[in-house]
């Protein structure tokens, strides 16, 4: 049910690719569109508000609150509101094939194709090869698209080759860093591990080595959608995860200071451990909910360690660049945003970041918002539809490609009306593969481009409509 281009075989829709000639002809169509819509008149070379007031320029991006509204300030000193996309310039449309070859209409043998990587076949590499001859020119086209669409920021996981691009081609960019080499649960670092701090420093140093002096480099997203839990569930998950982590040992050490004797702990918890060693080796969640007050104190200590260590590493290796937060999860059954981790983060990050799959931000709230005077960015949002051969719209739903555009415009307007929101980044550059990417099987209509690198012009019409007027909208009285 998947054709040679990675599309759903048994459906039809406008701009579905039927042959190689049609795929190549798209270049001519898009070139005409890009020529007609080169860039917003509101922009300077960074995408800042050239028609507005010029403030103090530092040669790097910074943040400032002006007349009760937070802003990025670009390297030339102009107001900057970050409209972006995740994974810009990456066209990795790969899908697992082992045990699933019957899904695909015309899958080449491994010895006759360069588009295999382990268990995956990359339709993206195939498309770029047919359409452009190679992928070498794809970043330049991607940067032209960004400017034409009115998008001034390359969000998380974008093509880092932009660092080597000429300044007249560049769009401001972010870099993504992970710290999960050592873990205390499935997706949270073991911050008390003696090697974790060096891992953080090494990763930030490595990622920023060739970018730290680049004025187009905004700052770092560090980690993504960590499983913070609340204080009590954080401890419960830590004990269920595995016997030995440095954070678990630290927790037991702090408990010893608090209770001294295991018998005192047993009385508090209604347990019957015969030693602290037996307690530390315990795997489960029984008894631990009786330590709620202690768990809050330890959780605060953990959060302080996490955010402070990362901020110090950025200051050490890339001091002029911004710490853009940890991209908090949108929510779900386990609430990973709370008044402890967000308030503590606000002491160290320059910008809070939230992945937020909602229709608009007019009623957007996060724990601690009332006591925090700090800007935030929406690091992920999107809307998808089922009218272009996809089986899943994504986390944000729309009825059609036009409705995706309408919802995009409404979302950005609501973000511009939110005084401490200084940007919003669409997730993501191109659709997920139709047959599902990776272990989680994601196959959403999440892209501004289809899985054949075809622009969704109905969506782009609305993207341009609001993005070409971001500053006039944001600065209106």
Structure in words:
The protein has 13 helices and 16 strands. With 477 residues, the protein is of the alpha/beta class. The chain folds into two domains: 25-97 and 138-227 and 302-474, TIM Barrel; 235-292, no CATH class. The protein has a five-stranded parallel beta sheet with strand order 8-4-16-15-14, with helices on one face. A three-stranded antiparallel beta sheet has the order 1-2-3, with no helix packed on it. A hairpin with a 5-residue loop joins strand 2 and strand 3. The chain starts with 19 loop residues before the first helix and ends with a helix. The relative contact order is 0.14. The model has no long low-confidence stretch (mean pLDDT 95).
| CATH architecture designation of the largest domain | Alpha-Beta Barrel
Q: Could you tell me the number of beta strands?
A: 16
What's the story with the biggest beta sheet?
5 strands, parallel
> In DSSP terms, counting alpha (H) and pi (I) runs of 4 or more, how many helices?
13
Reading the helices and strands in chain order gives HEEEEEEEHHEEEEHEHHHHHEHEEHEHH
Helix content: 25-40%
Let me know the average pLDDT: 95
Level-1 CATH class name of the largest domain? Alpha Beta
- Give the CATH H-level superfamily of the largest domain: Glycosidases
End-to-end gap: 53 Å
**Order of adjacent strands in the largest pleated sheet:** 8-4-16-15-14
Domains (count)? 2
Q: Determine the structural class based on helices, strands and strand pairing.
A: alpha/beta
Task: Assign an overall shape.
Answer: globular
